[in-house]
Design brief:
Blueprint (H helix, E strand, L loop, with lengths): L2 H26 L3 H4 L12 E7 L6 H9 L6 E8 L5 H8 L6 E6 L8 H12 L4 E6 L3 E2 L3 H11 L4 E5 L1 E3 L3 H18 L19 E4 H7 L11 H11 L4 E5 L4 E4 L4 H15 L4 H28 L13 H12 L1
Parallel strand pairs: 1-2, 1-4, 2-3, 6-9, 7-10
Antiparallel strand pairs: 4-8, 5-10, 6-8
Helix pairs in contact: 1-7, 1-11, 3-4
Length: 337
């Protein structure tokens, strides 16, 4: 086997492994809307505090916040944390909350030392919350009316401390869609998301768009102060839950809530610059290996095709050379006829 053929085989093997992992994950990870249907004997749901963190979100926040205020949940509050926005985020939140006692808007003007912005904003919400259950979400996530009820029911029924669910990603543009698919392939393969629920596994996950925790478990863990200097605070909070021995789970929530992952390819690249090294836990070897693998998988079709063609492995005539003479002659006769 020549080097070009070996590289081609390795590339195909990696893509097959990623595809297999994705298919396995889709089969083993339940959908939130199917995992926790309502039942007549369900007890009254506990009081819920929804924590929304927002920074310069005037472009997409209004439909998202309106969807939170339209939830079918009997006892809940929304704590909207406006984190040093320089646009009209705070004013829009205040206007939408006029006359609705369920909405409290908190404004952060300065970031204290020892914190990144997102973890600090997320910590301020629970400090003011009165609910037994906390739901953390981002300011651009749009909820179906029963999205919160399904998550709380699953948390209570399964006696979980922590639940993360993945949204439907609203993605526009061909290149951004391709990058989204590849990113989800690698995230699923690296984190083995179907194992998050297994207490014997170290697999973990967290996501900013939809994370639910019991308030007492959150405070016992140390809250977001435990991940105060992490740009990937949602993921690391999920890791802290598993390390502490608490119970966690991950489900697909795309039927119940949606968010724009990135608005453009440029936003996607800037997001990678900010979060990818942190997601690999600042491991230089892992970062170098992951970067090299993704780069190779992206350029392999462009590089391997001419190499294989020049080496003769992809040739219309080469496969005939190993055939017996009588078969070769028969084929020539049929072609001639």
């Amino acid at each position: 086997m020549t080097l070009p053929l070996a590289l081609a085989a390795l590339t195909v093997a990696i893509w097959l492994a990623l595809a297999t992992t994705t298919i396995l994950g889709r089969h083993l990870i339940p959908r939130l809307d199917q995992a926790a249907p309502p039942h007549p004997d369900d007890p009254p749901p506990p009081r819920l505090s929804i924590i929304v963190t927002a920074h310069n979100e005037e472009r997409s926040m209004e439909p998202a916040l309106r969807s939170l205020l339209a939830l079918r949940y009997p006892d809940y509050e929304v704590i909207y944390v406006n984190d040093r926005s320089s646009d009209h985020t705070g004013e829009i939140a205040e206007r939408l909350g006029t006359g609705d006692p369920r909405l409290t808007v908190l404004h952060i003007d300065e970031l204290p030392p020892g914190w990144f912005g997102k973890p600090h904003a997320a910590q301020r919400g629970p400090d003011a919350a009165t609910g037994e259950i906390l739901l953390f979400t981002d300011a651009d996530v749009t909820f179906a009316p029963d999205a919160a009820a399904y998550g709380v029911r699953h948390l209570v029924r399964e006696r979980l401390d922590h639940l993360a669910a993945a949204p439907r990603l609203a993605v526009t543009g061909t290149m951004l869609q391709v990058c989204t698919i590849v990113s989800r392939l690698f995230i699923g393969a690296r984190l083995q998301l179907w194992k998050v629920k297994d207490p014997r596994s170290s697999a973990f996950f967290g996501i900013g768009s939809y994370t639910i925790m019991r308030a007492d478990s959150y405070r016992a863990l140390g809250g977001h102060e435990r991940v105060a200097l992490r740009p990937d605070e949602d993921l690391r909070l999920g890791q802290a839950v598993k390390k502490s021995g608490m119970r966690s789970d991950f489900l697909e929530g795309k039927a119940l809530f949606e968010c724009p992952w990135y608005h453009s390819l440029g936003d996607f690249i800037r997001g990678l610059e900010k979060n990818s090294f942190a997601a690999l836990d600042y491991n230089l070897f892992m970062a170098a290996g992951t970067t090299a693998t993704i780069t190779w998988l992206a350029v392999a079709p462009l590089v391997m095709a001419p190499l294989l063609l020049s080496s003769g492995h992809v040739s219309g005539r080469r496969p005939l050379r190993g055939l017996p003479a009588h078969l070769l002659g028969g084929r020539r006769h049929r072609l001639a006829g």
